[in-house]
Prior knowledge:
The structure holds 2 protein chains of 2 kinds. By secondary structure, chain A is mostly beta strands. In chain A, the strands form 3 sheets. A 4-stranded antiparallel beta sheet of chain A has the order 1-2-5-8, with no helix packed on it. Chain A has a 3-stranded antiparallel beta sheet with strand order 6-7-9, with no helix packed on it. Chain A is globular. By secondary structure, chain B is α/β, with parallel strands linked by helices. Chain B is 43% helix and 14% strand.
Amino acid sequence: MKHCVRITSKDNVATLLIDLRKGDVMTLENGEALQAREDIPYGHKIALEAISKGMPIIKYNETIGVAQEDIYTGDWVHIHNCAPIRGGERE
Amino acid sequence: MAGLATNPNVYGVVIVSMEPMSAQKLADRITPSRRPVVCFDYDTCGGPINVVQQASRAAMYMVAEASGQSREEIPLSALVLGVECGGSDTTSGVIGNPVIGLVSDLVVEHGGTVILSETVEWMGAEEKLAARCEKKETVARIYRSVQFYEDYVRRIGQDLRGSNPTPDNIKGGLSTIEEKALGSVKKGGTKAIRDLIGYAEKPACSGLVLMDAPAAGVENMTGLAAGGCQMILFSTGKGNPIGNPIVPTVKITGNPRTIENAAETIDVDLSSVITKDLSLEQARDLLVDFAARCANGRLCAAEILETVDISISRIGYTV
């Protein structure tokens, strides 16, 4: 069973198909290993590379949000550190 | 309501109303479709108990006539397919919606029609959709339709972040409306977008058509049914049992945990894409096979469990 899905090669996050605990090491589709820096639930996103505050979070080769803080490889990427650009008060 | 009454799946219509003229007004919009339609109202029948008794009798005879009809083979080009998602999680954008997209492409290639709706879920995916529009005016209407919802939310002092993605979408791993939208529009496949129609309107052309309709499942499926869809393919992540009473609603999921928890609400289990090595194309074939059986009379889960509902969207006050 696959551990995660990276939808396009441009994506800087992957979707987990397993639950990860902090320190767990999983295998990416290309065979490389990636260690989780925190607990990440099944179905949620893990950072595949460092993403600086203000930089886009990329999935489907599209921007799905903006990093609200510096994100490190293996971090959980979700509403606490990834904000939408659309649908809110800003703009 | 006239759209629902003239859906190809509907044999005949029994209208029950308090007022005779309102009933007749609706009947007049159904009659040109040459299906049986009868009206019962409180005034003429003499109160609600008589209305129920007379309308039930008429409906019973209509059911008897309808059940005497035999099935005829029709080409795929006569199909109007609605695509929908609900209870989305991250498997929806990775498995369920892309598989429905493959079926959408197949239907369009055979000359059929596919309706993709849920305007709010185009937010962040407008450019992708705009690039596929045949007509310039459709591009403008896409941006205008999404803008309407974005402005509306702002005007009433709300933030879409409180409602879309929903708290359960978020629990399922979806972080932003853009992420949900980019997964959601995959249901429409990859073909050219030929037109954008209003809520509950029937498409005037074949191929892939957008409908400006609210994202909430029951309201949206009511619009698809009124727009003439004979079948709806519905992708779910966490599980969502809802269907439409006049349009068979085929439920699929790619989430193995949903199969464990709520298998009875799912018609086509695509979790093997995660747990084994089922490809998306093989998953499409499983879905097409089930949809064909469903078109031939096999009941889908929502029909058997009667988890079906209708809700007509209205934004604004009644005057």
